[in-house]
Amino acid sequence: MSKNRVNSVDSADPAAPDLTLRGVQVFRGWLDAADQAALVEDLRNVAQAAPLFSPMTPYGKPMRVRMTSAGRKGWVSDRRGYRYADRHPGGGDWPPIPKRVLDIWHGITGLDRMPDCCLINYYDAGARMGLHQDRDEADFAWPVVSVSLGDDGLFRVGNLTRGGTTESLWLSSGDVVVMGGAARLIYHGIDRIRPGSSTLLPQGGRINLTLRVVD
Ligand code: MD6
Ligand code: FE
Question: Which ligand lies nearest to the CA atom of residue 175 in the structure?
Protein backbone atom coordinates (compact mmCIF):
# COMPACT_ATOMS: atom_id res chain seq x y z
CA MET A 1 0.00 0.00 0.00
CA SER A 2 2.65 2.53 -0.89
CA LYS A 3 1.97 3.45 -4.50
CA ASN A 4 1.39 7.01 -5.71
CA ARG A 5 3.27 8.96 -3.04
CA VAL A 6 3.56 12.74 -3.33
CA ASN A 7 4.20 15.60 -0.94
CA SER A 8 1.53 18.02 0.19
CA VAL A 9 1.12 20.74 2.79
CA ASP A 10 -1.92 18.94 4.18
CA SER A 11 -0.21 15.95 5.68
CA ALA A 12 3.23 14.45 5.92
CA ASP A 13 2.93 11.91 3.12
CA PRO A 14 -0.40 11.61 1.33
CA ALA A 15 -0.96 9.45 -1.74
CA ALA A 16 -1.81 10.75 -5.23
CA PRO A 17 -5.20 9.84 -6.70
CA ASP A 18 -5.78 8.08 -10.02
CA LEU A 19 -8.52 10.56 -10.84
CA THR A 20 -10.26 13.57 -9.35
CA LEU A 21 -13.92 14.46 -9.95
CA ARG A 22 -14.90 17.95 -8.72
CA GLY A 23 -12.15 17.69 -6.12
CA VAL A 24 -13.21 14.22 -4.95
CA GLN A 25 -10.17 11.97 -5.17
CA VAL A 26 -10.50 8.39 -6.40
CA PHE A 27 -7.82 5.73 -5.84
CA ARG A 28 -8.61 2.80 -8.11
CA GLY A 29 -7.77 -0.68 -6.85
CA TRP A 30 -6.04 0.52 -3.68
CA LEU A 31 -6.82 -2.88 -2.17
CA ASP A 32 -5.91 -6.05 -4.04
CA ALA A 33 -8.09 -9.18 -3.91
CA ALA A 34 -6.30 -10.62 -0.85
CA ASP A 35 -6.56 -7.30 1.05
CA GLN A 36 -10.26 -7.11 0.22
CA ALA A 37 -10.96 -10.66 1.43
CA ALA A 38 -9.06 -10.08 4.67
CA LEU A 39 -10.92 -6.82 5.22
CA VAL A 40 -14.28 -8.55 4.76
CA GLU A 41 -13.24 -11.05 7.46
CA ASP A 42 -12.44 -8.14 9.81
CA LEU A 43 -15.84 -6.60 9.07
CA ARG A 44 -17.62 -9.87 9.76
CA ASN A 45 -16.12 -9.80 13.24
CA VAL A 46 -17.25 -6.19 13.72
CA ALA A 47 -20.79 -7.07 12.63
CA GLN A 48 -20.85 -10.03 15.00
CA ALA A 49 -20.22 -7.71 17.96
CA ALA A 50 -22.27 -4.79 16.58
CA PRO A 51 -25.01 -6.15 14.29
CA LEU A 52 -26.16 -4.30 11.18
CA PHE A 53 -29.35 -2.29 11.75
CA SER A 54 -31.76 -0.32 9.56
CA PRO A 55 -31.86 3.23 10.86
CA MET A 56 -34.83 5.57 10.53
CA THR A 57 -34.25 8.93 8.92
CA PRO A 58 -35.24 11.95 11.05
CA TYR A 59 -38.26 12.17 8.71
CA GLY A 60 -39.53 8.75 9.79
CA LYS A 61 -38.61 6.79 6.68
CA PRO A 62 -36.38 3.72 7.08
CA MET A 63 -32.99 4.08 5.38
CA ARG A 64 -32.46 1.72 2.48
CA VAL A 65 -28.95 0.68 3.54
CA ARG A 66 -28.19 -1.33 6.67
CA MET A 67 -25.34 -0.09 8.83
CA THR A 68 -23.16 -0.45 11.87
CA SER A 69 -19.94 1.18 13.08
CA ALA A 70 -16.56 0.53 14.61
CA GLY A 71 -14.60 3.02 16.68
CA ARG A 72 -14.99 5.35 19.62
CA LYS A 73 -18.08 6.81 17.95
CA GLY A 74 -20.75 5.27 15.75
CA TRP A 75 -23.02 7.09 13.33
CA VAL A 76 -26.74 6.66 14.00
CA SER A 77 -29.99 8.14 12.76
CA ASP A 78 -33.48 8.19 14.26
CA ARG A 79 -36.33 10.61 14.92
CA ARG A 80 -33.92 12.76 16.96
CA GLY A 81 -31.72 13.29 13.89
CA TYR A 82 -28.37 12.25 12.48
CA ARG A 83 -25.59 12.09 15.05
CA TYR A 84 -22.66 10.21 16.52
CA ALA A 85 -23.36 7.92 19.47
CA ASP A 86 -21.09 6.26 22.04
CA ARG A 87 -23.05 3.00 21.83
CA HIS A 88 -24.77 0.72 19.35
CA PRO A 89 -28.60 1.15 19.36
CA GLY A 90 -28.73 -2.30 21.01
CA GLY A 91 -26.74 -0.93 23.97
CA GLY A 92 -23.31 -2.47 23.40
CA ASP A 93 -19.98 -0.77 22.77
CA TRP A 94 -18.80 -0.26 19.20
CA PRO A 95 -15.88 -2.62 18.44
CA PRO A 96 -12.48 -1.08 17.73
CA ILE A 97 -11.66 -0.05 14.15
CA PRO A 98 -9.72 -2.95 12.58
CA LYS A 99 -6.01 -2.26 12.11
CA ARG A 100 -6.31 -3.02 8.39
CA VAL A 101 -8.78 -0.12 8.11
CA LEU A 102 -6.51 2.27 10.04
CA ASP A 103 -3.66 1.28 7.72
CA ILE A 104 -5.75 2.35 4.72
CA TRP A 105 -6.49 5.72 6.35
CA HIS A 106 -2.81 6.30 7.10
CA GLY A 107 -1.62 5.02 3.75
CA ILE A 108 -3.95 7.33 1.86
CA THR A 109 -3.88 10.50 3.96
CA GLY A 110 -0.49 10.31 5.65
CA LEU A 111 -2.22 11.61 8.79
CA ASP A 112 -1.12 10.50 12.26
CA ARG A 113 -4.52 11.41 13.69
CA MET A 114 -6.66 8.29 13.32
CA PRO A 115 -10.40 8.35 12.54
CA ASP A 116 -12.88 8.06 15.44
CA CYS A 117 -15.57 6.32 13.40
CA CYS A 118 -15.66 3.67 10.72
CA LEU A 119 -19.23 3.57 9.43
CA ILE A 120 -20.09 0.32 7.64
CA ASN A 121 -22.91 0.59 5.09
CA TYR A 122 -24.32 -2.52 3.44
CA TYR A 123 -26.25 -2.19 0.15
CA ASP A 124 -28.40 -5.07 -1.07
CA ALA A 125 -29.42 -5.28 -4.73
CA GLY A 126 -32.07 -2.54 -4.48
CA ALA A 127 -30.37 -0.18 -2.04
CA ARG A 128 -29.28 3.36 -2.79
CA MET A 129 -28.18 6.43 -0.88
CA GLY A 130 -29.58 9.85 -1.66
CA LEU A 131 -27.44 12.92 -2.24
CA HIS A 132 -26.08 14.15 1.08
CA GLN A 133 -23.23 16.02 2.71
CA ASP A 134 -21.09 14.49 5.46
CA ARG A 135 -21.43 17.31 7.98
CA ASP A 136 -22.06 15.78 11.40
CA GLU A 137 -18.39 16.16 12.35
CA ALA A 138 -16.88 19.00 14.41
CA ASP A 139 -13.98 19.93 12.13
CA PHE A 140 -14.26 19.81 8.33
CA ALA A 141 -10.50 20.27 7.99
CA TRP A 142 -10.17 16.48 8.38
CA PRO A 143 -10.84 14.48 5.23
CA VAL A 144 -13.38 11.67 4.90
CA VAL A 145 -12.04 8.44 3.40
CA SER A 146 -14.29 5.74 1.99
CA VAL A 147 -13.60 2.16 0.90
CA SER A 148 -15.77 0.20 -1.55
CA LEU A 149 -16.11 -3.60 -1.36
CA GLY A 150 -18.23 -6.05 -3.33
CA ASP A 151 -20.57 -5.02 -6.14
CA ASP A 152 -19.97 -1.83 -8.14
CA GLY A 153 -21.81 1.31 -7.02
CA LEU A 154 -22.76 4.30 -9.16
CA PHE A 155 -21.36 7.29 -7.25
CA ARG A 156 -22.86 10.69 -8.02
CA VAL A 157 -21.02 13.91 -7.22
CA GLY A 158 -22.81 17.26 -7.11
CA ASN A 159 -21.96 20.63 -5.66
CA LEU A 160 -21.38 22.39 -2.34
CA THR A 161 -25.06 23.35 -2.26
CA ARG A 162 -28.10 21.29 -3.26
CA GLY A 163 -29.01 21.27 -6.94
CA GLY A 164 -26.99 22.01 -10.04
CA THR A 165 -25.34 19.58 -12.39
CA THR A 166 -23.87 16.28 -11.22
CA GLU A 167 -21.31 13.81 -12.56
CA SER A 168 -21.18 10.08 -11.85
CA LEU A 169 -18.67 7.28 -11.86
CA TRP A 170 -18.73 3.61 -10.96
CA LEU A 171 -16.84 2.61 -7.82
CA SER A 172 -15.51 -0.95 -7.77
CA SER A 173 -14.34 -3.28 -5.05
CA GLY A 174 -11.00 -2.08 -3.68
CA ASP A 175 -11.44 1.54 -4.72
CA VAL A 176 -10.88 4.27 -2.12
CA VAL A 177 -12.41 7.77 -2.25
CA VAL A 178 -11.21 10.85 -0.36
CA MET A 179 -13.32 13.95 0.20
CA GLY A 180 -11.12 16.65 1.69
CA GLY A 181 -10.15 20.28 1.31
CA ALA A 182 -12.59 22.23 -0.86
CA ALA A 183 -14.46 18.99 -1.68
CA ARG A 184 -15.06 18.01 1.95
CA LEU A 185 -18.69 19.21 1.95
CA ILE A 186 -19.68 18.32 -1.60
CA TYR A 187 -23.04 16.60 -2.11
CA HIS A 188 -22.72 12.95 -3.13
CA GLY A 189 -24.68 9.70 -3.14
CA ILE A 190 -25.06 6.22 -4.61
CA ASP A 191 -27.77 5.87 -7.27
CA ARG A 192 -27.67 2.09 -7.51
CA ILE A 193 -25.41 -0.89 -7.34
CA ARG A 194 -24.67 -3.39 -10.08
CA PRO A 195 -25.76 -6.73 -8.58
CA GLY A 196 -23.50 -9.65 -9.43
CA SER A 197 -20.56 -7.50 -10.55
CA SER A 198 -18.27 -8.87 -7.81
CA THR A 199 -17.77 -12.28 -6.21
CA LEU A 200 -16.16 -10.89 -3.04
CA LEU A 201 -19.31 -11.20 -0.89
CA PRO A 202 -20.92 -14.65 -1.10
CA GLN A 203 -24.41 -13.13 -0.64
CA GLY A 204 -23.68 -10.33 -3.09
CA GLY A 205 -24.24 -6.65 -2.40
CA ARG A 206 -21.90 -3.78 -1.64
CA ILE A 207 -20.12 -2.59 1.48
CA ASN A 208 -18.91 0.97 1.87
CA LEU A 209 -16.76 2.06 4.81
CA THR A 210 -16.53 5.75 5.67
CA LEU A 211 -13.76 6.83 8.00
CA ARG A 212 -14.11 10.12 9.84
CA VAL A 213 -12.54 12.21 12.57
CA VAL A 214 -15.60 13.10 14.64
CA ASP A 215 -14.64 15.61 17.38
C1 MD6 B 1 -21.01 5.04 -0.63
N2 MD6 B 1 -20.25 7.13 0.22
O3 MD6 B 1 -20.02 4.97 -1.33
C4 MD6 B 1 -21.41 6.33 0.02
N5 MD6 B 1 -19.12 9.98 2.04
O6 MD6 B 1 -21.74 4.08 -0.43
C7 MD6 B 1 -20.30 8.25 0.94
O8 MD6 B 1 -21.34 8.67 1.41
C9 MD6 B 1 -19.05 8.99 1.16
O10 MD6 B 1 -17.81 7.76 -0.44
C11 MD6 B 1 -18.02 10.71 2.29
C12 MD6 B 1 -16.83 10.46 1.66
C13 MD6 B 1 -16.75 9.48 0.73
C14 MD6 B 1 -17.87 8.72 0.46
FE1 FE C 1 -21.17 10.47 2.50
Answer: 1
